[in-house]
Design brief:
This protein has about 300 residues and is α/β, with parallel strands linked by helices. The protein contains nine helices and twelve strands. The longest helix is centred in the middle third of the chain and has 18 residues, at about 135-150.
Length: about 300
């Protein structure tokens, strides 16, 4: 069975929290009796990604899970050619007769990250940095920007450096943000995160992580981390497929009710006043506060 069920990851093994979360989700699926064979797709070219996914489908796969919004485009191209294979895209929006999408609502924790960054930046700037301009990254940035505005009345410095996995490019951009008076940077990165952390150590600015609990790993650099464990989507897609109920043609979403997988993890440096403000905004989210899902402000380039 494992040879006929594949988890496709975009990037390189051993780098970054987003793909690490997927690997952990696959491990949980295996322990539950739904093993997945992991395949890495390092190429960033959309056509190359589609070709690789098609090659994985050739032996007659039962299930291919593409991890991340980067999977929307290649799966949209490949899925019609393999109608007997079922596909799931995590953090995506694609649906089709043989395609399901599973999404954890990262915008909730990203919004709270923005509130904290707006409070902490004070007379400086709250910043955001990501890599590829894919739908999940844009949604997370928009939610973060909304939180920053509500807490501080200002837009954040925000930019997409073009690559999730390049630590040198991420380091260059993060240092440039610090030079523009950024005091806190929300880094939605994967393999490039080490470059952001190095810049934070060099310049003294705080970082807010995402996907997993980076505070526990490096409390001197991380003020907080916007947990949105996308591995939950991998785990649930594998379980649904095994049970014969993969939600093809629909998007399955998980929100704040998944408290173990979606929350803002706080470091020891978060003050009592900031915690009270975050509790207040968390209550508003639970009460149905609508997050601004679009961002129309300026973007930063070094």
């Amino acid at each position: 069975m494992s040879a006929r069920r594949v988890l496709a990851l975009f990037g390189h093994a051993g780098r970054g929290g987003f793909n690490e979360a997927a690997v952990e989700g696959a491990r949980r699926a295996e322990r539950a009796g739904q093993p997945l064979r992991i395949e890495w797709i390092a190429d960033t070219d959309p056509q190359a990604r589609a070709a690789r996914i098609a090659a994985l489908c050739e032996p007659g796969l039962d299930l291919l899970i593409a991890h991340g919004g980067q999977g929307d485009a290649p799966v949209a191209e490949v899925a019609p050619r393999f109608p007997r294979t079922q596909f799931a895209v995590t953090q995506g929006s694609l649906t089709a007769p043989n395609v399901a999408s599973y999404e954890i609502l990262q915008e909730h924790s990203a919004f709270l990250a923005g509130v904290l960054a707006g409070l902490r930046a004070a007379d400086g700037r709250a910043a955001h940095l990501s890599g590829e301009r894919v739908r999940p990254g844009l949604k997370g940035r928009a939610a973060y920007a909304d939180g920053v505005r509500r807490a501080s009345g200002r837009d954040p410095l925000t930019g997409f450096c073009g690559n999730q996995h390049d630590p040198e490019r991420a380091h260059e951009w993060a240092r440039a943000l610090a030079a523009r008076d950024a005091r806190v940077v929300f880094a939605m990165m994967d393999g490039g995160r080490d470059g952001v952390s190095r810049a934070c150590r060099e310049t003294g600015i705080w970082q807010i992580g995402n996907v997993i609990d980076w505070v526990a790993r490096d409390p001197r650099v991380y003020l907080a981390s916007a947990l949105a464990d996308s591995g939950l989507c991998v785990e649930r897609a594998a379980a649904d497929h095994a049970a014969g109920r993969l939600a093809v043609g629909a998007v399955t979403r998980y929100g704040l009710e998944q408290a173990a997988s979606l929350r803002l993890a706080l470091g020891a440096g978060v003050t009592a006043e900031e915690r009270r403000a975050l509790d207040d905004w968390s209550g508003r989210l639970a009460g149905g506060l609508e997050i601004d899902g679009g961002y129309t402000g300026a973007e930063f380039t070094p």
